[in-house]
Write a structure and sequence with these properties.
This protein is of the alpha+beta class and 138 residues long. Helix content is 23%, strand content 33%. Strands 1, 2, 3, 4, 5, 6 and 7 form a 7-stranded mixed beta sheet that branches. A hairpin with a 5-residue loop joins strand 4 and strand 5. It is globular. It starts with a strand and ends with a helix.
Length: 138
């Protein structure tokens, strides 16, 4: 099972806004975010034998979606870039406390994608999915 990261979608109050931000970042360059340090367990996130790790986004104390991690690289100022696919895969919402920076999430603890477990929920507008998740209904 791959290892994942979790991160608060700072400044995003809705799923739509997070999707817009990811699309804007990808319009001019590969989507990425920067962090001060390379995760010590980065090989477990993108390694050839396990690969497939994702960055799970937290909005309003809920894990709401994930962006697959493509790799790690160098950024300006000695920082580390985390390269992401610019798409947001909605997941079955799960409560998650906010935190600073990123945290690890084991593959066994990761919520399933809505496409796998939600029978039709993925077709709902993202705003409605966010509202339902906030109410704990999905």
């Amino acid at each position: 099972m791959p290892l994942h990261l979790t991160k608060v979608a700072y400044g995003c109050d809705s799923i739509e806004y997070l999707q817009e931000r990811l699309a804007l970042k990808a319009a001019h360059q590969p989507a990425f975010l920067t962090t001060r340090y390379l995760p010590k367990r980065h090989a477990e996130i993108v390694g050839e034998d396990v690969g497939g790790g994702s960055l799970f986004w937290i909005i309003k104390h809920q894990l709401i979606g994930r962006s697959p991690i493509l790799g790690f690289g160098e950024a300006e100022g000695g920082r580390v870039a985390i390269y992401l696919e610019p798409r947001l895969v909605l997941v079955q919402a799960r409560p998650k406390r906010a935190h600073q920076g990123w945290r690890y999430l084991a593959g066994t603890d990761a919520p399933p994608d809505l496409g796998e477990a939600g029978a039709g929920i993925a077709e709902l507008p993202p705003g409605l999915v966010g509202e339902l998740a906030g109410l704990g209904l999905i």
